[in-house]
Amino acid sequence: MSGWPFGTQVSSGCAALLLFALSLCAVVALRARPGPGVRRARLLLAGGGTAGGGTAGCGPGPAAPGRIGEWVGRLRRVARERRELLCLPVGCAVAALGKSVLPLIVGALAVPLVRRWLAARERQRERELRESAVIDMCGTVAGELRAGRQPGAAVSGLRDAGLGPGWPAVPAAARFGGDVPDALRKAGRRPGAEGLQGVAACWRVAVDGGAGLAAGLERVAAALGAERDQREDLRAQLAGTRSTAAMLALLPVVALLMGAALGAEPLRVLLHTPTGLGCLVLGGLLEGAGIAWTRRIVRVAEGPGKTNGTNGRERER
């Protein structure tokens, strides 16, 4: 198999490790641009002098530990902010073990996919936090109204409610006599803050018709809380399905480890033979289809809960 394109031309993992090191250095150089604070710390650590650049007679000895700590901090920051880059060392490790450049290419192609998945998870987390903030805001304002405060004063005291960049316009409108319902509707356009649309309707009804705003806010909070509890209960019921899907997705990795432990050299067969490459491509397609099908089942199961919650919130409006 010496003539196979992905064969033993890459006889060791040195080339893969070199490519990974170069890519990681490039990412660090682009992402970690030293600001004024970093330059000031570098001056202090390097020369022991003032921030203006003067030295106190110290030699260049402390510069090396300070620079090493700075680079370690940069690497930690990049690893925390760009977790999708972990696909590169994994691909390099598999490329070194299998003596092929193909896993490195797959790892590089997986970086944008993992970035999209992590971004979707982050958006979902922010949406849930914003929904919880809406519930807390409704309870807080309702309590202030029950205590005898005016609606404008109760809302204007909420400076940082965790409702996103559109929320500061609401207390500003309440403080300076602006259109509070319109500001609430605009702030409710962000994902997770849709409950502010119901708050705007309650505010409009309370101002125009003289109805109690506290009761309306409590009903909106109760509807949103019921929707959140229903979603969490459904998520708990689907935890078994997600665990089963994750276990089935990891079975090929377990099979490769067992084959390597028995001395069958599965990576050599998969990466250096036409039959192995065909099985690898077919297995990858089936694995992706299985994960996509499982996600579709979960989305269909979560759909009725979301619809019922939305309808319930519309009824509360």
UniProtKB/TrEMBL annotation:
This is Type II secretion system protein GspF domain-containing protein. Its main location: membrane. It holds the Pfam family T2SSF. One of its GO terms (cellular component) is plasma membrane. InterPro entries: T2SS_GspF_dom (IPR018076). It is a multi-pass membrane protein. Keywords: Cell membrane, Membrane, Transmembrane, Transmembrane helix. Residues 166-258 form the Type II secretion system protein GspF domain. It comes from the Bacteria. It is found in: Cell membrane. The chain crosses the membrane at residues 245-264, 270-293. The keyword Iron-sulfur does not apply. It comes from Streptomyces luteoverticillatus (Streptoverticillium luteoverticillatus).
